[in-house]
Amino acid sequence: MADPDAWLGGRLHLHQPPPGAHRAGTDAVLLAHLVAPEPGSTVCDLGAGAGAVGLAVAALNPACRVVLVEREATLVELARANVALNGLGDRASVIEADILAAATARHAAGLLPGLADLVVTNPPYFDESRHRLSPVAGKRDAHSFGAGDLDGWLRTCTDVLGPKGRLGLIHRADALEHCLEALRARFGGLAIRPVHARADRPAIRILVTATKASRAPTSLLPPLVLQQADGRFTPEAQALHRGAGLPTA
Question: How far apart are CA 200 and CA 137, in angstroms?
């Protein structure tokens, strides 16, 4: 196993898949900062991969418990190794389960209804019918969805959350319409923050928070810009990678 990467200014160390496979980066950093869990709450990272987002949440919020959910056996092994590497075995666990499986199969694997107070998730981004897929199996599976899979993914998020549980989601900016469709009737109180690579370019990502069964209105938050004109991180992006929080609305 290769040497681990240092994350969040050294607060966290992560074994990642080999080069060429899907490796956690800035998207995971943004998602880990998106919603601060209440002390004593349980956070579920759905589609956890090697555990970057969930373990970053644990590192940033020492009073919460984290459950990492992943279906690929090699990534489950990496996630468990990362739990041990960071000394988080007392409040982080790993469930091997397919998020898109039937409810009976998910529940049998331990992904139970009402398990979490907060779900964070980075679903696969690309529709198999519209995008050229990677020839690397692990990268392809991490990045691609079939028709209707986003709806199924968010249905599982809803099932996993307890009453008034909260969701934190990152997705492509051009998938906003599909996200809203899948969230409708399940979540309310949406807060949407566009993320831009540079200030003069269209958004590339959206960060969405929502509350299960809420009737609160949707709000659009100020944008987050990741890079300056010279390609260097903005001060806000630098702070996030060091473990500081997202700018407030």
Answer: 35
**Which of 212-229 are b and which e, b meaning 16 or more Cβ less than 10 Å from the residue's Cβ?**
beeeeeeeebeebbbeee
Q: Does residue 199 surpass a pLDDT of 90? A: yes
In order of their start, the domains of the chain are 5-242 (3.40.50.150)
Our CA dihedral for 10, 64, 142, 227, rounded to 10 degrees, sits at: -50
pTM: 0.90
Mean pLDDT value of segment 58-67: 97
Amino acid letter for position 172: R
CA–centroid distance for 6 within its chain? 19
Element (H, E) at 94: strand 92-96
Predicted local confidence at residue 127, as pLDDT:
55
Task: Share the mean pLDDT of the chain.
Answer: 91
Q: Alpha helix locations (H) across 144-224?
A: 149-160, 176-183
pLDDT of residue 147: 54
What are the structure tokens assigned to 232, written together?
């260097």
Q: DSSP H helical segments within 61-145, as ranges?
A: 73-85, 103-109, 137-143
What is the SS3 string spanning 33-91?
Answer: HHCCCCCCCEEEEECCCCCHHHHHHHHHCCCCEEEEEECCHHHHHHHHHHHHHCCCCCC
pLDDT tier for residue 244 given thresholds of 50, 70 and 90: confident
CB 58 within 8 A of CB 64: yes
